[in-house]
Every structure is written in structure tokens, then in C-alpha cells.
Amino acid sequence: MNILFNGLDSDMFDNVINCSTAKEIWDTVQTICEGTEQVRENKMQLLIQQYEHFHFKSGESLNDTFSRFQKLLNGLKLYGRVYQVKDSNLKFLRALPKEWKPMTVSLRNTQEYKVYTLERLYGTLKENWICCSSCKC
Questions:
Q1: Is 47 exposed, middle or buried (0-12, 13-18, 19+ CB in 10 A)?
Q2: CA separation for the pair 119, 91 (Å, rounded)
Q3: What stretch of H or E contains 51?
Q4: pTM
Q5: pLDDT (tens digit, 9 = 90+) per residue, 32-63?
Q6: Which Pfam families match (predicted)?
Q7: How many CA atoms lie within 13 A of 46 on its CB side?
Q8: Could you tell me the CA-to-CA distances from 49 to 29, 72, 73, 76, 128 in Å, in that order?
Q9: Which of 2, 4, 67, 76 is 20 to 30 A (C-alpha) from 124?
Q10: Is residue 79 within 8 Å of 47, Cβ to Cβ?
Q11: 130 near 104, Cβ under 8 Å?
């Protein structure tokens, strides 16, 4: 209990000072920070919905889209929802705008996207986009 008490700021400490066990302290802190089980379930369902409807936003850069997608995947992982790499990579490729279609189709046809990490996929897209946008190939 002492370790938990020492790790809390004064506001949180005030919420758990009357707890009689370490488990009670932990559960109280978890409920205060994350909400009840129902709140956590609702947050996870919202993240799943955002994942299912993820798309490129007009005026957004590749970097912005990647960062937003990465944050979404991280949020889902915090709630225990993990997608296979090939599925999340395919989701990311399908979310990109029309001008990326030749590159995304090429990657999907070679099946390379299935073994890439999301970061490697992003790097490949970024590298090829810089080449294609500067030389108009």
C-alpha cells in the first residue's frame, strides 16, 4: 500500500486514503482514471468504429494520416484489441486518397504489405511518393 500511496499525487491520494487494501487502492485509481468497465467498453467500441471507418481526410498529409492511424491502433491495443499486421496495413493502404492508388495497388499485388511493419509500409510509401511527386514518373 505504501508504494501505491507514494506514487500518487495529492489529489489522487485524497481519493484513496481510506482504502484498506492495495487492491482497493488500485481498483479505485483505475476507476477514477479509466472509468467503470462500461465506460471502458464504450471507449473501445468507439475506437473500433473509428478504425472501421478510418479514411484520409482532405488536406491531410501522409504523415498526419499515419500519425492518426498509429494513435488509433495504440488506443485499441490499450483496450486489448489488436489487429493482425496485414489487416491494419491493408486498412491503411485503402484509406489513402485516389492519387495514391497506383502505389497502393502495386504494394497489394506484390503482397509485401503483409510482412511489413506499419512503420516500414509508411516509409516505403513516403519514399516512393517523394520520387513520384518530384520526377512525375
A1: buried
A2: 14
A3: helix 37-52
A4: 0.71
A5: 887 778 888 899 999 999 999 999 999 898 99
A6: Retrotran_gag_2
A7: 7
A8: 27, 10, 12, 11, 30
A9: 76
A10: yes
A11: no
